[in-house]
Design brief:
230 residues; alpha/beta; 7-stranded mixed beta sheet; 7 strands
Length: 230
């Protein structure tokens, strides 16, 4: 099947989601997911020896409204070393309003953006590939991302691994698929994030139950992975 229409179809999938943002930080499940991911990222950066995050160049593919880039600023990344690529113009407009002017934002298909090969220490992608339902397009994007990473850098990956039977617009990306997408990468992985439907249900009872249920490893549905480029 041709992958030429995948960006158009992806825009339609995002448009169908609509409604209030269930992942807004006001919700106890959302802020605990965010903080858990941040802690895991900081531990990863420490293991990699990245004491000065402000010196690293990072591109986020599928940066949405800029929430992740804002998180990265708070963790210590420098705005002049951050850039984001986003398909949907309304999300880019929101990101421009929210983020410092020093952050470069690209609008449109990331593979058409003027990103130089080996120009990034980190290419970050968060819950993007689970929305890409065309295998060939997934591979093309992964290959482009890999080309943008310098040697010694890597792809920072966060996505879920299991299918959501209630949402035909997404599919889980298991680790075997991540390895197929980046066959030359060296993977470090950590299972994170309590399954969102469970997280929403238990935190309605009490926010502390997120930690209790998240201690059960099979209930964690996402992977944070570092895919190193030797």
């Amino acid at each position: 099947m041709s992958d030429e229409r995948e960006p158009e179809q992806l825009a339609g999938r995002y448009a169908r989601r609509g409604g209030p943002d269930r992942y807004a930080a006001i919700h106890p499940d959302a802020w605990q997911m965010m903080q858990e991911r941040q802690r895991a990222m900081l531990r990863l950066f420490a293991r990699l020896g990245h004491a000065d995050l402000g010196a690293l160049r990072l591109l986020e593919v599928g940066c949405g409204g800029g929430a992740n880039l804002l998180e990265l600023l708070r963790l210590g990344f420098a705005p002049e070393h951050l850039c984001g690529a986003e398909l949907l113009p309304e999300r880019v407009a929101h990101a421009r309003r929210m983020l410092p002017a020093g952050i470069t934002l690209f609008e449109g298909d990331a593979m058409r953006m003027p990103i130089a090969p080996a120009s990034q220490d980190i290419v970050f992608v968060s819950t993007v590939f689970s929305s890409l339902l065309n295998d060939a397009f997934q591979q093309r994007l992964a290959t482009a991302m890999w080309s943008w990473v310098r040697r010694g850098g890597g792809v920072l990956w966060y996505d879920f691994t299991v299918d959501n039977p209630r949402n035909p617009d997404v599919r889980g990306v298991p680790l075997r698929r991540v390895r197929e997408l980046f066959p030359h990468g060296e993977l470090q992985t950590k299972r994170v994030t309590l399954a969102p439907p469970i997280a929403r249900a238990v935190t309605r009872v009490h926010p502390s139950l997120y930690t209790v249920f998240n201690a059960v490893a099979p209930l964690r549905t996402h992977v944070l992975a570092w895919i190193a480029k030797p």
